[in-house]
Amino acid sequence: MASCNRTVTRQVTATGKKMFVYYYMTPEPVTITSESTVSEATDIINRHGFRHLPVVDEQMVLQGMVTDRDLRSVCPSTILDPGERKNILARVSRSFVLDIMSKDFFQLQASATIDDALQLFTNHRIGTLPVVNRQQQVVGIFSLNDMMAAYQKLFGLGERGSMLIAIKDSGKEGILGVLAKGLDEQAIECSRLIRSPGRPGHEPAAIYLRVNTCNASLVHRVVEQAGLCLLSPKNPADGGNA
Amino acid sequence: MTSHKHITIVTDSSLLDHDTGGGDHPEVPARLTSIKEYLSASSVFSKIQYVTPDPATRGQITSFHTESWLFRFEESVLSGKTYIDHPDNQIGYESFELAMLSAGTGISAIDLLEQGETECVFCLTRPPGHHAEANMPLGFCFFNNCVIAARYWQSLGSQRVCIFDFDAHHGNGIQSAFEHETDTLYISIHEHPSFSYPGTGWAEEHGQGAGTGTILNLPVNPGTGDEQVIALLDGPVLELLESFKPEAFIIAAGFDGHGEDDMSGLAYSTNLYRNIGSRIKQWEKQFCPGHVVSLLEGGYALTALAPSVEAYLDGLS
Ligand SMILES: [Zn+2]
Predict the structure, then answer these.
(1) Preferred mutation among A152, A155, A160, A224 to probe B, highest tally of B CBs within 10 A
(2) Per the domain annotation, does A241 fall within a domain?
(3) Cross-chain residue pair A214–B221, CB shorter than 8 Å
(4) Average pLDDT along chain B
């Protein structure tokens, strides 16, 4: 693990707690101390199929990170002759995690948002981040998979009993209010409403609704009555969904 | 064979009495009457005989559903509720009895086939069933007519039952009934769950544990037309059927993928249903002659529904 030791912190507010990594991380992760041997670390990583292991002191304060790559890089190459390989292996297995761990690493405060994690993941090509409290004690691990699960929850992907309605955004003033009122009047439960400006030439500006009903006809009518129309659902591969 | 008619339609006029409250609910009695009317004026009419079903027994219903759901359903109806769990699932006083009768259409159809009374049978029924889960209603569905029919057929000795579902929506209830089993197969072509109700039926779901390989979800994007569906039928669907070798087919026949039906974004033509019917006829010949039952699921645009059912029956017979 390279680069600077930077912490992402945000003030926690009472609202919108779903946006925080704390609610999606794996709590109480397996950790190791810096005095452990490399072979102990290798053992844990192999046994659990981890790729990252937080290194902590007795108070669970984060000291560093050790990755499967760190461990592999100190292991002797298989192309060495058996005798030499054995020597190196013996030496490595006696060396300590302290010697190989990264002391420069990214971490997330428990108060960080999943968007903070997304920034780190995409800008630094990281796959896993340790999560610490104010005392720098490790309270969790947040992985790319956890982040995808978090966004899946937030956007309601695969929520049984729902469907997604894509609407061309007219940009008209107050249009969201009109739409929401129409849905309310028909007692259509809307669990997500996302407005996206799109990308010129790629994606049109759109309003996405996730509604909990199978009565698509009724939803379509509300959309029409709001003066909006559905996005023509063409396959992107067939020339874009303009 | 005691009859020279080629198509038997199992239906009952009392199924019209399942009251979905009028107003904006698309699952209306006129769905059945419009089909009947259209058929009476069509060229397949001379081949059709109508038969009334017996209601399913409690035991047949609980071959899939939980007792607690039956009680809850019955209680909701008796207490005068207008829907269960969600306004989609509208009910009236007769809805419990009529859901039992609707589930009975598939069972009666199987009896007719087994007794050699017919070669081709279509259940013109409502409420539909493929969204219903073991313990809850969903998307207009209360009892899972197809699964209940499959269980009945299995009890008569046809173990290897395939449910093929061409409704625009994924039959989540059928999948959850079958996904751990080795002897049953569920194949569904439906609008992609990223867009469509009920948000289930992902391509990567193939069944679980011992049942791995017995679920085939073929989601298609909004705008999909006939060609792509036919390619699926003649490609992955046939391939899986050849390895599974079904002893019986139950068809979840939904017509809401029609281009005129705005309950989905699919763009099927009326004629596609003729092609689907004729493919099913071929499969029947190849795998299990005299062992196909079709049950009406969705289909809400009345002007498209009736001709689509006629085209399907024409292809099937
Ligand atoms: Zn449907």
Answers:
(1) A160
(2) no
(3) no
(4) 96
Rank A48-52, A170-174, B42-46, B238-242 by mean pLDDT and report only the highest.
B238-242
Query: What whole-number distance in Å separates Cα of residue A95 and Cα of residue B160?
Result: 60
In this predicted complex, what is the ipTM?
0.79
pLDDT tens per residue across span B175-231: 999 999 999 999 999 999 988 999 999 999 999 999 999 999 999 999 999 999 999
Q: What is the DSSP letter of A230?
A: B
| A contacts of B26 (beta carbons < 8 Å) | 215, 217-218
A234 confidence band (pLDDT: 50, 70, 90): low
Please list every residue in chain A whose beta carbon sits closer than 8 Å to the beta carbon of residue B198: 160-163, 214
A168 and A63 in a single domain? The answer is no
In chain B, whose CA is at the least distance from the CA of A234? Answer: B223
A18 occurs within a structural domain: yes
Measured CA to CA, the distance from residue B188 to residue B167 in angstroms comes to 8
DSSP-based three-state secondary structure for B189? strand
**CATH code for the domain in which residue B161 is found:** 3.40.800.20
Query: Could you write out the DSSP letters of every residue in A125-170?
Result: T-SEEEEE-TT-BEEEEEEHHHHHHHHHHHHTTT-TT-EEEEEE--
Q: Which helix (H) or strand (E) holds B218?
A: strand B215-220
Domain carrying residue A214: 162-225
> Which of B80, B6, B84 minimizes the C-alpha distance to B49?
B6
> What is the CA(B264)–ligand 1 centre distance, in A?
8
- Active-site hit among B131, B169, B190, B291: B131
Instruction: Note whether A213 contacts B: Cβ–Cβ < 8 A.
Output: yes
Residue B1 lies inside a defined structural domain of this protein:
no
Residue B288's nearest CA partner among B179, B170, B156, B144 is B156
User: Catalytic annotation on B131?
Assistant: yes
Distance B140 CA to ligand 1 centre (A): 9
* Predicted local distance difference test score (pLDDT) of residue A201: 84
Domain shared by A138 and A20, yes or no: yes
Report the relative pairing of strands A26-27 and A138-143 from DSSP bridges.
antiparallel
pTM for the complete prediction? 0.85
Token code pair at residue B266? 């699919």
CB contacts < 8 Å between A and B, how many?
76
| pLDDT of A232 over the 80 cut | no
What is the CA(B254)–ligand 1 centre distance, in A?
A: 6
Residues A127, A23: one domain? yes
Tell me the pLDDT tens digit for each residue of A110-164.
Answer: 989 898 999 999 998 888 999 999 999 999 999 999 999 998 888 888 788 999 9
**Do A188 and A221 have their domain in common?**
yes
Mean pLDDT of chain A: 85
